[in-house]
Amino acid sequence: MTTALPSRPASSPALPGLDSATLTSLKKLTQYYAVTAFLALMIGVLLGPLQALNYGGVNVYEFPLLKVLIRSYYQGLTLHGVLNALVFTQFFISGWMLYLPARDLNVRPNMRFAWFTYLTMTAGLLTAAVPLLMNDATVLYTFYPPLEGSPVFYIGAAVMVAASLLVAGQVVWLWLAWKRAHPGRVTPVVTYMSVATWLMWVVAALGLVVEVVFMLIPWSLGLTRGVDPLLARTLFWWTGHPIVYFWLLPAYISWYAFLPRQAGGRMASEGLTRLAFAMFLVFSVPVGLHHQYADPNVQNSWKVIHMFLTFLVAVPSLLTAFSAAASLEDAARAHGGRGLIGWVRRLPWGNAGMTAQVLAMVSFIFGGAGGIVNASMAFAPVVHNTAWIPGHFHITVGTATTLTFMGVMFWLVPHLTGKRLFSPRLALASV
After folding, report:
1. In a domain, 6, yes or no
2. Has this prediction a pTM greater than 0.90?
3. Which residues of the chain have pLDDT under 50?
4. Could you tell me the maximum CA-CA distance found in the chain, to the nearest angstrom?
């Protein structure tokens, strides 16, 4: 399976480009991020069937062997959510979206700082893992107070998020350095999408940072008598919904920039791509209150405003659907595809990376449509606290994002290691 990355652009005399040693180190760092991410995914996925069996009336947590490792349904659910939704996504995105801009701009990052951010993120993960495994932080993915976890968990989670913000800062620094060395030049589109995603995450993460650092850590250490649970929920959802776009936008980068090349075509419209990511940057953050329609601390007027702002996020998502489909159709017709839908047969379905991403896009049609239902003040009370909500969550991050990242790995691993996939047929079967 061939690499989907273009050749590196020429470096500027005022800005050192990627030399062989730096590129080798950067590739190794990206591999470390990716391996850590998929190890977390593997453990988190293994915990998933335990939740399903519990819903089916089979309490597997009473089995003696399992009871030694996981003491309750809620501990298993917390581990499942944290590993899959937070650890897997953050590690993969941090590696993927540091490598892409550095490679796209041909700018040499500070590799000591880059490795420091990985080690810091890993240290935060290991710190948070201890109370999770000891059943001292069974506070679920949302960790709403008055559920109280160990301060070690909150500190570890804060360190992990802080490390991702350090990655964001390094990417923005690379981009600004490139802009200074190339005045008047248009930012390459892959870097444009990456920087927009990181800027969105920096703004989105503020709510969680404030909640954890200034409320939950002092409270769990006994430095304060209590916290305002409604304020904590509002701060959580400042981050809690935009984080979904932090998961999705890296997948969109692949759909826009790399999937068309894997299908044998080209990006449908670079201008449309830039517009979509600019809209995501503007619309992604002020949407969290649609998770708080039943909360009395938020005025109804703000709930209505956030409902319509959430609906606006559907616009760049629809632009993405149109652009990705147009790119695939263009590629298929260039290879002999004919008919209204007959061109679909001419796509390279034997390519595991392309197939994974196309199936992820199809699954996200249902996830995106379900999101409109969740955001509606009329329908939200009907579907909340039902299986609809975990279903929606699993279609978005559990299918669209995860399947896309798997598809990316099928070409990224050979690109990073210089080795062929062990078995392209097995990769296709896994999809």
Report:
1. no
2. yes
3. 2-3
4. 70
